[in-house]
Amino acid sequence: MEDKINEIKKAAEKELEQVKSSNELKELKIKYLGKKSELSEMLKSLGKLSKEERPKIGALVNEVKKEIEEKINATEEKIREQVIKEKLEKEKIDITLPGTKIKRGSKHPLNRVIEEIEDLFVSMGYDVVEGPELETDEFCFERLNLPEGHPARDMQDSFYITDEYLLRTQTSAVQARAMVANKEKTPIRIITLGKTYRREDDATHSHQFNQIEGLVVDRKDTVNISLADLKGTLEVFMRKMLGEKTELRFRPSYFPFTEPSYEVDVTCFKCGGKGCPLCKHTGWIEVLGSGMVHPNVLKMNGYDPEIYSGFAFGTGIDRLAMFKYGITDMRYLYTNDIKFLSQFDRMDIEN
Ligand code: DAH
């Protein structure tokens, strides 16, 4: 009997050594310790033994059962550790591998300039408004005091869609729209930025370009917008865009919607005003059109010129972007050349 028990023990130990999975272990547990196992059967039939043998064999069976159970538990622990080890091994990440490079885009220089202008004017209390690109003759010209017969109204210079509608030739149209929309609700302090179109057929001009337009109108008896306000505003604008050292020069000029009108030059950003090929050795570069809003324009758009005064200005965003970033050919702004555009990546990181 004792031999038999020891045999079972040895057999169990041998099998345990070869166990590889927890399922196999479960089966072994049933085989050696389960209700129907040899050892359990022995305990059940202890009664058949002699009085002397009974306690001895009973104790021995129990002891062997306990030993087998302990070994099974130990093996179970070993298998669990092995499983975890294998899992860790399998899911190991090599953190020294180089990462996959994600290609990132960058903001287009025009959008950079647009956002910068918007931020600047919003910080000075302006609203950013929009107007339609498909504009009426009325808002593009008539309400801006552009008399009939003015060259800008010529079919040769504008893209007319019908007799009445055209692709706007200037963002100045939004001045009239802003005044009509506000109807003597003062003050008006707006900028508008957007696409404009002209029928250009020479190689150096684009048929589509971008302009920014500004308009400020307020009461004469309180604020009294004057040329000094225009000058101060344009100085802040140009210095922010082209550098703090930029100087401005106001040259009397003519625009139908302003009186007096000025063209504004800035000191050449390339030579600082000394004279170079870019500024044709004058030291100055023309950038803006501006002036005090013409009384006729105020009147036509619902503002009494006896009570209100205002200033307006407009300029090409494309040119500003070129000056700001030293871009030599306007076509770069429109041809989506990745090599050109990716130069602006760095600015995203720097800013
Ligand atoms: N609209 C003019 C142009 O396209 C620019 C301009 C000049 C806008 C004078 C203005 C202004 O607001 O006051 O050339």
Describe the structure.
With 351 residues, the chain is of the alpha+beta class. The protein has 2 domains: 2-90; 109-131 and 170-350, Bira Bifunctional Protein, Domain 2 (BirA Bifunctional Protein, domain 2, 2-Layer Sandwich), CATH 3.30.930.10. 41% of the residues lie in helices and 20% in strands. It has 12 helices and 10 strands. The chain has helices at 2-18, 22-33, 38-44, 53-90, 109-123, 137-140, 173-182, 227-242, 295-300, 317-325, 338-341, 345-350, and strands at 127-129, 134-136, 159-160, 165-167, 188-197, 208-219, 248-255, 258-267, 284-293, 308-316. The chain has a 7-stranded mixed beta sheet. Helix 1 packs parallel to helix 4, helix 2 packs antiparallel against helix 4 and helix 3 packs antiparallel against helix 4 (53-90). The longest helix is centred in the first third of the chain and has 38 residues, at 53-90. The radius of gyration is 44 Å and the shape is rod-shaped. Bound molecules: 3,4-dihydroxyphenylalanine (DAH). 3,4-dihydroxyphenylalanine binds next to strand 9 and strand 10. The site of 3,4-dihydroxyphenylalanine has 11 residues, from strand 9 and strand 10.
Short description:
The chain has 351 residues and is α+β, with helices and mostly antiparallel strands. The radius of gyration is 44 Å and the shape is rod-shaped. 3,4-dihydroxyphenylalanine binds next to strand 9 and strand 10.
CATH superfamily of the largest domain: Bira Bifunctional Protein, Domain 2
Strand order of the largest sheet: 1-5-6-10-9-8-7
Shape: rod-shaped
Which H/E pattern describes the elements? HHHHHEEHEEHEEHEEEHEHHH
> Total number of β-strand segments?
10
CATH T-level fold name of the largest domain: BirA Bifunctional Protein, domain 2
Which class of the largest domain in CATH terms?
Alpha Beta
**Class from secondary-structure proportions:** alpha+beta
Number of helices: 12
| Beta-strand percent range | 15-25%
**Contiguous runs where pLDDT drops below 50 for at least 5 residues:** none
Say which molecules are bound, naming each kind only once.
Answer: 3,4-dihydroxyphenylalanine
